[in-house]
Design a protein that fits this description.
Helix content: 40-55%
Strand content: 15-25%
Low-confidence stretches: 1-66, 74-79
CATH architecture of the largest domain: 3-Layer(aba) Sandwich
Number of helices: 8
Strand order of the largest sheet: 2-1-4-10-5-8
Number of strands: 10
Number of domains: 2
Mean pLDDT: 82
Radius of gyration: 38 Å
Distance between the termini: 122 Å
Bound molecules: zinc ion
């Protein structure tokens, strides 16, 4: 019996020791399972603090912000001083306007094609206008961005052989021309069944037509002075075309893609007869720029 008791006691001691070892092992292994538990517990607290903290921070911050409200009035006087925006379109330059993509411009001229002339002239005009304090921006044939506002929109071109120089203004009573496909004549006031889709259009209000006529006259006044045989011009200059009589000019599509307050198109001369003149980019750019500046000053948009 005593042996049995001893054995039992030894077993009890052994079991107790085993229990301790198991407990230690379990705790050690349990540390892994503790991590996951700790993670969610730790992540839970963060979300809670932010919500209450932000509202509190925002609330006290708002009152002070409302107090310095005076700044806005001070910013208002700056708006009249903002530089006027003038868009200068290089006629036919890629990418071209949907519905007119086939109209690549007149051939010939001093640069082998109308685009060679319009891209050079538009860039030169933009440069001069910027030097004069105007926010001048160039756009290709596809008016970009479409329907953008501005003080003026000026599109530059040269005509085909036999054509003449002129300055055309946007006018009321018409609309843009439609062609077969992407620009195959003849033009039509309404879409053909095969006309390529046109983009959304603006309108020409009486006020826009009036300002466009004024801009056309200002540009024509300056341009007329340099369109001379002495400068290589051997064709004719029709001056400012301010009515809808000349549909090719009055219905120029870009007049209906611009939201500028005044919109004009300039045909600087005809290929061939005016080649010597058309090659004088700086001379022409100076005259057109001065005409635009005259108009902006007369409208009180430039000092
Ligand atoms: Zn053209």
């Amino acid at each position: 019996m005593s042996r049995g008791a001893l054995i039992t006691g030894a077993l009890a001691v052994a079991l107790a020791a085993a229990a301790i070892v198991l407990a230690v092992v379990t705790d050690g292994g349990g540390s892994d399972s503790t991590s996951p538990d700790t993670a969610p517990t730790a992540s839970a607290p963060p979300p809670e603090p932010p919500p209450p903290t932000r509202p509190d921070d925002t609330t006290p911050t708002t009152p002070p912000a409302a107090e310095p409200a005076p700044p806005p009035p001070a910013a208002e006087p700056a708006s009249p001083r903002e530089r006027p925006v003038v868009w200068v379109q290089a006629g036919h330059a890629e990418p071209r306007e949907p519905g007119y993509r086939a109209q690549t411009g007149a051939s010939g001229g001093p640069f082998g094609g109308e685009i060679g002339f319009t891209t050079r002239l538009a860039a030169a005009i933009v440069q001069r206008l910027r030097r004069a304090g105007v926010d001048a921006r160039e756009t290709p044939g596809e008016v970009t961005p479409n329907m953008a506002p501005g003080a003026a929109f000026v599109s530059v071109h040269h005509d085909v052989p036999g054509g003449q120089a002129l300055v055309g203004a946007a006018s009321t009573g018409g609309g843009e021309n439609y062609y077969h496909g992407e620009g195959t004549p003849p033009p039509s006031p309404t879409p053909y069944a095969d006309s390529a889709p046109h983009r959304p259009a603006t309108a020409v209000s009486p006020q826009v037509a009036s300002r466009s006529a004024g801009l056309a006259r200002s540009v024509a006044r300056r341009f007329g002075r340099i369109y001379t045989p002495a400068n290589g011009a051997n064709g004719s200059f029709a001056g400012a075309i301010t009515d809808s009589g000349n549909t090719r000019v009055a219905n120029y599509y870009a007049f209906y893609r611009s939201a500028a307050d005044a919109r004009v198109i300039i045909e600087a001369g005809g290929a061939g007869t005016d080649d010597a003149f058309l090659g004088r980019i700086d001379l022409i750019a100076a005259a057109i720029s001065e005409g635009i500046l005259d108009d902006l000053r007369s409208r009180g948009l430039l000092a």
